[in-house]
Amino acid sequence: MKKRIAYCVSDHTGVTVEAVAKSVLSQFPDFEFSLIALPFVDSAEKAHAAAARIAATSDALVFSTLTDPALRAILRASCPQLFDLFDRIAPAVEIALGQTITPSPGRIHSMANNYESRMDAVNFSLALDDGLQPQRLDQADLILVGVSRVGKTPTALYLALQYGLRVANYPLTPDDLEHASLPDILLAHLPRVRALTLAAERLAAIRQARYPDSRYASLEQCRAELAAAERLFKQHALGVIDTTRMSVEEIAARLRNPPEDRVSMDPQA
What we know:
CATH 3.40.50; four-stranded parallel sheet; 45% helix; elongated
């Protein structure tokens, strides 16, 4: 497999340019890419330092979201394989809007939920993690359900931190799975309930790492719990996301933009 280095240069945190680079580079399976982030390149001095570092790396790819034209020029002069998102996209948007762009580093983050609301959402998700404080479920934007270790907690926290959503997660215990219906506390908030599932083999591997050789981690137990949970999800027509081959970012995107009809959201469906 061919190995290449790709730099992600930004005048802010670099989250956007890294996401774009990963999305693009993942489409070239014959290559193995090492990504190097260069965030907060917000001055001529830092831009020259970044350009020098990149120039010292043989055949490097460079992805950039620098907003200052002067800083972009510094990078462009030293990086022949530069993929500048603003240079490539902004001119077309200017034409469409009939207005010249006004560069402003970090402005994308001001378009998202503010810091206070996101921290409030994170605190909420932590307080209602793993079925805690069920009396507060009426305050949740979303309620994630599923058996233990299908990804409810990381997904809830990601949605809270990234989007300011107040997300609770409620684990379905073996006792819950023996009943003919979901717990009453969930039925009272059913429109906001979303279900997560996972392949039994993957679930067993995750549980095995935490509780080796336990009944909890056995493949038989995992299969039985998942089957019982699926029965409850179907009974209540819940949308179900199979997280087996999905990142937390993908899970969050599907939860924020569910299909209009509440059918299975398995990515292979």
